[in-house]
Amino acid sequence: MDQYIEVSGNKVSLQLRIFHLIEDKYYIIYCPALEVTGYGTDTDEALISFEHNLQVFFEDYVVQADKLFEYLESMGWKFQGKKYHRDIGVDDFMKNLPMHILDQTEYQKSNLYA
């Protein structure tokens, strides 16, 4: 899966790999490519928490767009065409986890800040 982030003005479109994890009684949604996490007592609550934290992440960085690009590059994202792309070593990520992975899926959003 091609992970990307595209910023156009104050709009963000993205496609990311997220992991659905469980630790003790909490469900966790984690995006290693951005280091953004959400959690809850079920997967729906975890996804709502993740989406809130993702929104806050981009609101903080979109206010200072130069900081967003600087941060993405420091996290290993590469600018190609009109988008930032990143490939993360999923196997390395998975073998170092101390918790159980339920699933990994594709997460897409467009026009986060219309």
What's the SSE blueprint?
Elements lengths: L2 E6 L2 E13 L2 E6 L4 E5 L2 H21 L1 H10 L3 E3 L2 E4 L3 H6 L4 E10 L5
Antiparallel strand pairs: 1-2, 1-6, 2-3, 2-7, 3-4, 5-6
Helix pairs in contact: 1-2
- Main sheet attributes: strand count, strand direction, barrel closure: 7 strands, antiparallel
The stretches of 5 or more residues where confidence is low (pLDDT under 50) are none
**What is the ordering of alpha helices and beta strands?**
EEEEHHEEHE
Q: How many discrete structural domains?
A: 1
| Helix/sheet category | alpha+beta
User: Total strand count, please?
Assistant: 7
Mean pLDDT: 79
Helix content: 25-40%
Strand content: 35-45%
The 3D shape can be described as globular
Task: From the alpha carbons, calculate the radius of gyration and give it in angstroms.
Answer: 14 Å
Instruction: For the record, give the distance between the C-alpha atoms at the N and C termini, rounded to a whole number.
Output: 26 Å
- Number of helical segments with 4 or more residues: 3
Polypeptide structure, described:
This protein has 3 helices and 7 strands; from the N terminus they run E-E-E-E-H-H-E-E-H-E. Strands 1, 2, 3, 4, 5, 6 and 7 form a 7-stranded antiparallel beta sheet that branches. Strand 1 and strand 2 form a beta hairpin. Helices cover 32% and strands 41% of the residues. The protein starts with a strand and ends in a 5-residue tail after the last strand. The chain is globular. The mean pLDDT is 79. By secondary structure, it is an alpha+beta fold. It has one domain (3-7, 17-108).
